[in-house]
Amino acid sequence: MAERTDTIEWALRTLSARFATTVWVPGNHELWTLSTDPVPLRGEARYRYLVSMCRRLGVVTPEDPFLVWGSPEGPVVIVPVFALYDYSFRPDGTSTKAESLALAYETGVVCTDEAVLHPDPYPSREAWCHARVAATERRLMALPAGTPTVLVSHFPLIREPTRILRYPEFAQWCGTERTADWHVRFGAQVVVYGHLHIPGTTWYDGVRFEEVSFGYPGELKTKPGRPRALRQILPAAGHAADEDQAASCVSP
To answer: Does the pLDDT of residue 52 top 90, yes or no?
Structure first.
């Protein structure tokens, strides 16, 4: 998704007009503060501005009550997650943030976040991440024991999907080890994420993980085999799943 707030609003308005319910979880691009953006807010203030925008448009956010999906097997709680990252997905041979960042700069694989994703008022992006993880974990722990969930996040909640990145240095901007067991602890039926631009289905600890990225327009041109349709996540209640009746999700 483009970084300017007016473009984000256009995209969310378009999606919310086409789907009965739209759920938004922020990726790194929406949190960028660029000189061309008409809204120059940074960090937490920018995130809260986008949450307000979503509420104005009727879009569900990580700050709202969890939705309940009535699947044929019983209700499933849809959990939008904003946990960010904390540089703990470090490339082999590094053991600290300083070492992993130094390697990234040495190899020339540095995420733009380092320049334009500001953590204000937190002292660092990892501090913001840890606050987000703690707040989300409290809400998840408040669910009744055994509640089935679908965890929806822009960033992958576990390290394993990043192992196949072409540039392993980039993994440090992709998540946090603090969410590594959430899919098991919190009864995930499916974990939905994006960010890596490697669409596909994988399984970890018996839980289905769906990477639902469409990718950039240029990627669609150079990789004609990439998925170009919404991914079915859950069937509709009382019906055989099909494209019109399925719960679907796509990540920017």
So the answer is: yes
Angle at 49 between CA 45 and CA 52, to 5 degrees: 140
Q: Any idea how long the chain is?
A: 252
What is the C-alpha to C-alpha distance for residues 171 and 212, in angstroms, rounded to an integer? 18
Cis-peptide into 121, omega within 30 deg:
yes
Residue 2: per-residue pLDDT: 56
The domain tally of the chain equals 1
For residue 177 the two structure tokens come to 């080890």
Q: What is the pLDDT of residues 134-184, one digit of tens each?
A: 999 999 999 999 999 999 999 999 999 999 999 999 999 999 999 999 999
Which positions ≥6 away from 92 have C-beta within 8 Å?
A: 168
| Residue 71 lies in domain | 5-249
What CATH number is attached to the domain comprising 75? Answer: 3.60.21
